[in-house]
Amino acid sequence: MNIILLDPKQAIDAQRYQLDLRQAEHLNKVIKAEPGDKLRVGIINGLMGEAKYLGENGEGKAEIEVIHLTQQAPKPLPLTLVLALPRPNMLKRTLLNISAMGVKRIILLNSAKVEKSYWQSPVLKADNLQRILLEGLEQARDTYLPELQMMTRFRPYVEDLLPREMVGKLALLAHPYQADDCPINLTQESILAIGPEGGWNEFEVSKWHEAGFKSVHLGERILKVETAVPVLLSRLYPA
Amino acid sequence: MNIILLDPKQAIDAQRYQLDLRQAEHLNKVIKAEPGDKLRVGIINGLMGEAKYLGENGEGKAEIEVIHLTQQAPKPLPLTLVLALPRPNMLKRTLLNISAMGVKRIILLNSAKVEKSYWQSPVLKADNLQRILLEGLEQARDTYLPELQMMTRFRPYVEDLLPREMVGKLALLAHPYQADDCPINLTQESILAIGPEGGWNEFEVSKWHEAGFKSVHLGERILKVETAVPVLLSRLYPA
User: Fold this and answer.
1) Cα separation of A42 and A47, whole Å?
2) Which of A119, A167, B130, B221 is the most exposed place for a label (fewest CB within 10 A)?
3) B115 and chain A: CB distance < 8 Å anywhere?
4) Contact residues, A window 216-235, toward B, CB-based 8 Å cutoff
5) What is the pTM of this model?
6) pLDDT digits (tens, 9 = 90+) for A78-91
């Protein structure tokens, strides 16, 4: 937790905020903060700045007082990520990374090689997703929560919703066959689709191509999704 | 496991190899291979090719027969990675990624912010390290095992051993303060030093600089080591 992210609901008055349990524990156990210590804070979907730790109030709740909020969050990555739903433990790490790297629009999509049970995972509950995405922001010192959508049907998404999503974006499909080298250092906005373990099937690849996606590959090596994502994002937008 | 890597010790004769337990289980449970099926194989530190699954022999041991071994392993990444020892569960994932990405020389180094207990982790036992590095190769379809050294003392390493290690290499220190942008798309060999959670301390940074390392940063976002490593490698050698 490299920044404490505050929900406006945590405000007590114009300056003071009450920390939630996770934040209070972090201050107690990891940072071992003392009243008066300065802390980096940010408002979710807002500015970042500094606060003073006030310690626990009469009811045993930790409070902080904002000193200033004058800093902009880092620039978002101009990329929409469409990700075939990975297995739950990989999903968690991958979403945290995606959020930390500054992706602000994420679509979790079904694919023939996604096991049905993955859609039942508790990781996909709204509260859990929100917490994972927040943890990514806390890691990276960002405040803007990514939007996340779940699309449990491949074809209606690709045929009906994707065309609008693609407008103005370079559309890339991570798929190693008959593919170009992945471009480096894009200046334009993009949408990137990353398949499941085992890849997209033939039908799916044909649908992506029909929609206007161009296959790109990463080289000879086969990487896990959780590694391929940072590798691809870093290649597309290294700056 | 995208390739079965064979140790010469597993050879029964010129063509036949006996699989180890982990490989046999993978064929049985994940691939559900039948005798006669073709499999991708490689010799550790050697060529890659194809084999035929022979099923279990009279003693219940799975065997394969090599059909050809004519393919070169993918090119190594021309980078030596010096990594402050991460916490054990992060070490495991990070080493697997490093191995999958093609790094062939890894030095695990002590640093002021590395907890002493990390050096006692069972992950650091030779057998476990070897298995993790092999898993990275099996993921990426590579055969060449990285060399890994452990340096439990920072100063003697940086003062005495590093100068020889650096010869002919661009020397980069991942350190966000007073740093240049991380270069993109290097053509030369490099050595990259990545610090612990919380970063190198001031003394350490001064020793790296004395040795001739140049600080580079990745942008405003703070990433976990397991994310920063693929991001950095992908930026230095995107091709």
Assistant:
1) 6
2) A167
3) no
4) 219-224, 227, 230-235
5) 0.91
6) 999 999 999 999 99
